Request: fold
Amino acid sequence: MVQATIQETGKAHTHVQGGQTAIPCWFMRGGTSRGPFFRSEDLPEDQTSRNAVLLAAMGSPDPRQIDGVGGATPLTSKAGIVAVSDRDDADLEFRFAQLQPDSDVVDLTSNCGNMLAAVLPFALEAGLIAAQGETTTARVLTLNTGLVAEITVPTPAGESGRYVEYAGDARIDGVPGAAAPIHINFLDTAGSVCSSLLPTGNVRDRVDVPGVGQVEVTCIDNGQPLVIVSAAALGRTGYESTAALNEDQDLKSRLEILRLACGELMGLGDVTGRNYPKMTLVSPPAQGGAINTRSFIPHVCHDSIGVLAAVTAATACVIEGTVAHDLAEVDPGALTQVSVEHPAGEFSIELSLDPVNPQRVIKSALLRTARLIMAGHVFVPRRIWSPGAAPLEEKH
Reply:
């Protein structure tokens, strides 16, 4: 682990400016997502006030998020909150916040592997930790679920010291151009939200769907709770465009019936107002990969696929008996490369399997990119939050 040190020089702080509160903010792209990142110390300590600040900063609830920095889609309605960790097994602590354009709910219960890719670059930019050498590696604890990831970014030497390098030759589908590679190793992701990798205790379950009959699904959580279902079982090919699937109200209605039923089966209770489990349609690979996917998050079809959803879908491909395994083309072995196809291309996951128990994934490794887009202050009205004021009362 790195030796975490807070850098005080030139450090901006939250302050009142006129009728608004100015909060230090770094706007980052992480993988195929983007949003504002904050140091934990710059935000309110109580969750109600902090949520109000995030909603105001993002401009939610409003479909256009016209009064904030949100991008009017779930993929661009995300925020990251980072702090130095005092734990022996982590350097940084990351709290992911999923917001929605038209909702006043701030979901702190799930992970986002794409935004996770921006955590270490942000921490270096914001002065939370110091660079180590040509590369910097840190362990990041995701507070939402307890997942720990080891992240490495390039930090070459420049005229004024070491800096985060964003330029490079790494390409990820869903992001134009190339950038510096960010390597992420997930150390133990099984049962990140659910009780275990296969929370129902089965590699597949059957759920009744009106107008369809019994549908076979695999309920699995290796970093992200997923319900995996064959597209053919719902009368679709799985190769439809994102736009076509988002307009397919009949399909989305059936997926929601499945999602609610599987949420109960997975021990998650009533998931009506939650962003998980995600729904993933699978079909045979079409571009030389291992499996083809269409991922819903959970009511909108993803333009690609989330990082942890890809890890979980890849895991399902290598477990015998799952819905995905029946359709996947994967080479067996203790170290398996799984290419997950999605609407924007493919996502390669390297899985290390336990040779004694092939259903246990020891490590999941992947490559992402990130970029600092803007740094400065985001402003919220003082009525939302003013440093030193009494915390907001939680609505009941």
About this structure: Residues 191 and 197 are 5 Å apart (CA to CA). DSSP finds seven helices and 19 strands in the chain. Residues 3-10 have pLDDT under 50 and may be disordered. The domain at 15-181+371-381 is CATH 3.10.310.10 (Diaminopimelate Epimerase; Chain A, domain 1).
